[in-house]
Automatic annotation (TrEMBL):
This is M28 family peptidase. The keyword Signal applies. Keywords: Signal. Residues 243-438 form the Peptidase M28 domain.
Amino acid sequence: MKKSRFAALTLSASLLLSGVVMMPADFGGQATAEAAKPGNPAAFDQKIISRIDAERIYSDVRYLSETIGPRVAGTAEEREAASLIRERLESYGYQIEVQEFSIPDKMVGHLATSNGDEVKATFPSGSGETPEKGLTAQLYDAGLGYPDDFTEAAEGKIALISRGELSFRDKIDNAAAAGAAGVIIYDNSEASGPPNLSIGGDAPLPVAGIKKVSGEALLEDVVATGGTVTLKVDALTGQTSQNIIATRAPKNVSNPDIVHVSAHFDSVPLAPGASDNATGTSTALEIARVLKSYPIDKEVRFAFVGAEEIGLVGSAHYVSTLTEDEVSRSIANFNMDMVGTAWENATAIYMNTLDGLPNIVTEAALSAQERIGTPSELVLYKRGSSDHVNFHEAGIPAVNFIRREPGTAALEPYYHTPQDTIEFVSQERLKEAGDLVGSALYSVIRKN
Ligand code: BES
Ligand code: ZN
């Protein structure tokens, strides 16, 4: 074991020295084919790592996060990202399938005081709607929203409730039971934006979430003076998102095994989504470019999915389109989500699996790390929260590659904020992820 590792390292070093890998960028499969003889895994790795171009990945991260910006599911920006990905993969010669799918209704709206002041608010999915002209009513100070916090005076008013102690759902149900016409929940801690409320299913009333300072201002300016607010909440219906699937099948192999690489290209509202997940998207695109013409004996599918941030919707759709036969031929999913943060504490590459157990993907990555000398620690960890969940649930061995702080498993502080910009993305770590996942993937799909 030790010996072969040493031999592998020596070989890759000598390849580097002899200049075999110092080829112009796009030489395709032939030039290194000779060096990459069976039994020389390090030479196969060189076919990947000599060509993974960190600058190209970084410039795609910049395009997605800065030129396009936030790419919320269902928006024109998400579609623009999908077009870019599609054009790129077409230019690499992959067979492309565009999957368009519906996404759940999204609530939109606004909140204003009778003085005409706009209050920044969020409107949770599952909220009730208001009449078209909006709901104009007095506010009722309902404290934390316990049943006892409501009197008859709440009837027909909009209940203003502080976050905390009770679930959002209980607060809303208590307001409804008291005959309130709507609910505004204000935060109980200082956050830069209004809270995203998760209210668990359809609510009987229109609901808005606002910042703590906004709630306190309403108590002072509206409740105390007997003024009114106008709340408007509508469902945005019929929205769609897309997946872009790029496939390459091996020559002369019938019913090949299938390996899926996935990355989501959507983001949360207001976040440029540089780390989450322009990094995974751009790295997967680069791996697709490098692999476009190498001989393989398994089918590879790059699934660039939308609508991850609203509940893994794109990958659920993709996996649901696989036939039973395709699922049974599927042997692995490499999911890349947040692979390039520059946050200094995130020194480890986590391999998240749903059961916390190793599988073909973690094994391939560990072997690749050993051969190519990936500097970061690889940590096997039990965690969902990304698109690998849907592959796992279909019975396909799946891993989410994600950078975190070792020990705490913390994500960078810019996660899901407007600060998730390219400023906090590391070109060096993008290269590390591309080399590692590219080499591991190639070790699984290549023709020996
Ligand atoms: N990029 C994150 C990935 C992630 C993985 C976050 C593991 C935390 C842990 C992903 O896009 C995300 O934010 N996921 C959501 C869940 C999803 C079902 C909406 C999350 O973790 O809140
Ligand atoms: Zn993500």
